[in-house]
Amino acid sequence: MTTPPAPARAPVQHLRIERRGGLAGLRAGADADFAALPLAAQQALTSTLARSDAGTPTTPTPGADRYTYRLHLVHADGAQRVVEVGEDEMPEALSELVRPILP
């Protein structure tokens, strides 16, 4: 039995990334308009979302010192969603955008 294709979504307009976990538990994140992202990050995000929409699991790898990334997306039609990605599935082009959030 095949899975029906995911419904078409409006393009991503804005991305906010939250990184959670890690040894020290430091908060880290990124916030940017999709058009302002480097091309490699745009392509990595598009690929990651395609895997998520296709139902490919992105479950976090267990472990206290592992990172989990939450991708908060705002689409051009105003729709919002959150996609959780484990450290092993997070593309480098996206994870390198993340910076520590100082109190």
Question: Overview of this structure, please?
Answer:
This protein is of the alpha+beta class. It has one domain (19-95). It has two helices and five strands, in the order E-E-H-E-E-H-E. Strands 4-3-1-2-5 form a five-stranded antiparallel sheet, with no helix packed on it. The termini are far apart. The model has no long low-confidence stretch (mean pLDDT 86).
Number of helical elements: 2
Strand content: 25-35%
Which structural class do the helices and strands define?
alpha+beta
Give the low-pLDDT segments.
none
Instruction: Give the total of beta strands.
Output: 5
- Computed CA radius of gyration, to the nearest angstrom: 14 Å
Q: Residue share in helices?
A: 10-25%
Spatial ordering of strands, largest sheet: 4-3-1-2-5
Element-level helix/strand string: EEHEEHE
**Major beta-sheet overview:** 5 strands, antiparallel
How many domains?
A: 1
Mean of the pLDDT scores?
86
Roughly how many Å apart are the termini?
50 Å
Shape: globular
